[in-house]
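REQUEST FORM: STRUCTURE PREDICTION
Request ID: SP-0412
Submitted by: Lab K.M.
Chain count: 1
Length (residues): 358
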Amino acid sequence: MTAKTALVVGAGIIGACLSYRLARAGMHVTILDAAGPHRGASGGSWAWLNAISAQEKSYFDLRQASLAAYHELEQELSGRLKIDWTGALVWDLNTYSAKSDSPVQKSWGSNARIVNADEMRALEPMLTSPPDGAIYSADDGLVDGAQATQTLIDAAQAIGARGAFGRRALSLLSEDNRIAGVKTDFGDLHADVTILAAGTGTSDLLVPFDITLPTSNRAGLLITTAPITKRLTRALWTDSVHIKQLADGRLVIGENDHAPGALDDPEATIAHMIETTQKMLPALGVLTVEKTTIATRPIPGDGYPVIGAIPTLDDAYIAMMHSGFTLAAITARLLTQEILTDELSPLLTPYRLSRFAA
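STATUS: Completed
RESULT:
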């Protein structure tokens, strides 16, 4: 290993996992973020760890590998990272149709299975009128997005990482045909390697170098309710809303369709989401909205992650993706290995920035 210092731009879940992995590998890590940990998309994420939403085998394999990496991460952190592995029931048409088998169920080695309405009632008695069928994905995990991100930041700092919070990344520092760090609104930060995990801010940092990263970033609304009696065992990803319950009793409800105009009137959307949830799960009783969050999710133009070295910029790397929570653990593990050894991971071959060059 020749690189000794690393600058991670972004303190969401991707940046948090990367900072922990790099620090654990012995590097001197600085974490840069204008707002601080989990203040962007990671703090407003439904935070569902899954493989079944993959539409291609290579993407499924990457997501499955990340679930395994999370189990290892849990052991390393000795219980500090709280993941609920009770699984999810899914009846969103983009993932499952009752008229056809799930591709995951057919051939990809998932532990997911098709269940009918009676099986759904047995798995989740709160559902009084379940649909005809769904996927039961038993291996899925759920986390509190902000809490999980903060846990990884704390773990990274406990082994030497330094937080540079409240400082905005203005541009990349280019010296002798390499990236030497970042110019911020409070001075320059230098490092042997610079990793862009800045979510929706990533593409702007690449513009001065004539590197185009197409994006289809999308805002989403998340509701957190006041705590209620623990009733839901599994997460519900439905064709209207998605619902999970945290260990402290709070429900986290996300809007599913992200339809154009859905956030033109957030209050109306919030009211509709609460009404839909209470109709689906009437035994929950009256729900009180404690907090709402609107966050813009970073989504590369083709919908798939962008991970790895940045072509034409020596000592610079990128980690930008939707499904950041699912992919954070494996992204951190594989990208750290590539930074330390220069050996490329086959799992990341389809997800290089170079695919947009054409």
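NOTES: Residues 307 and 319 are 5 Å apart (CA to CA).
Reviewed by: T.R.
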